[in-house]
Amino acid sequence: MKALYVTSAKYAKDLPQTTLPEICFVGRSNVGKSSLLNALTHTTNLARVSDMPGRTQMANFFELNEKLLLVDLPGYGFAKTANRDHSEWQDLMQAYFRRPQVALVLFVWDGRRDFESVDTELLRHLSANRPMILLLTKSDKLNRSEQQERLRFLTASATSSGVRLLQSVPVSSLKKTGIQELRDFLFQFVEPKL
Ligand SMILES: Nc1nc2c(ncn2[C@@H]2O[C@H](COP(=O)(O)OP(=O)(O)OP(=O)(O)O)[C@@H](O)[C@H]2O)c(=O)[nH]1
Ligand SMILES: [Mg+2]
């Protein structure tokens, strides 16, 4: 696995002109987007991780095996997302999702929480235009039957609100559960092998 940092964009105007297919991480602050990116790339701090919500402030681009880009997007949902207001986040996200190279959205969610209307809105909006996978992170905090129960509940809840999902998968960056499968899926997604 060759994982390289490419660039970061704080504002829409900074978004790079790239050609490889992109897979992006979207979700609330502190759900574990950056940790997941590190787990997927076998690195510990390629994407910066923190206990403080709002660690990731920019769209950070990483290239994998010269095949695809993983994009760690800033989280939402914390008023204090250090000095950035919601409209700046929204501008960056809107410009980001106008780019045709965005191939797949990984919506990252802490499986212990229920969706609120702001989440369902975003899920519905993003999944209307791109394929989306729901990743339930921190699965190590639930036992197997709780995981299955939450997976069913959240998938049904999203689907009944008009969200279109390719798949819903529990993962743990801490225990590395589901990571290899996700990695295989992503490469297969951008370069299908018959
Ligand atoms: N138990 C457990 N903790 C995790 C897991 N993944 C991330 N964490 C912890 O959750 C916290 C937030 O992780 P980040 O990866 O920084 O979260 P983020 O979604 O990138 O957050 P922002 O950049 O603020 O949007 C850190 O304290 C991580 O150690 C996991 O799979 N299991
Ligand atoms: Mg982050």
- Global Rg: 16 Å
Please summarize the sheet with the most strands: 7 strands, mixed
Low-pLDDT windows of residues = none
Assembly status: single chain
Ligand types = guanosine-5'-triphosphate, magnesium ion
Spell out the helices and strands N to C: EEHEEHEHEHEH
- Share in β-strands: 15-25%
- Could you give the count of β-strands? 7
Strand order of the largest sheet: 1-3-4-2-5-6-7
Amino- and carboxy-terminal Cα gap:
22 Å
Helix content: 25-40%
Structural class: alpha/beta
Residue-averaged pLDDT: 92
Principal-axes geometry comes out as: globular
Helices, by number, come to 5
Question: Could you give the topology of this structure?
Answer:
Blueprint: E1 3-9, E2 22-26, H1 33-40, E3 59-64, E4 68-72, H2 86-97, E5 102-110, H3 117-129, E6 132-137, H4 144-160, E7 167-170, H5 179-190
Parallel strand pairs: 2-4, 2-5, 5-6, 6-7
Antiparallel strand pairs: 1-3, 3-4
Bound molecules: guanosine-5'-triphosphate and magnesium ion.
Question: Which features characterize this protein?
Answer:
single chain, 194 residues, seven-stranded mixed β-sheet, 5 helices, 7 strands, globular, binds guanosine-5'-triphosphate, binds magnesium ion
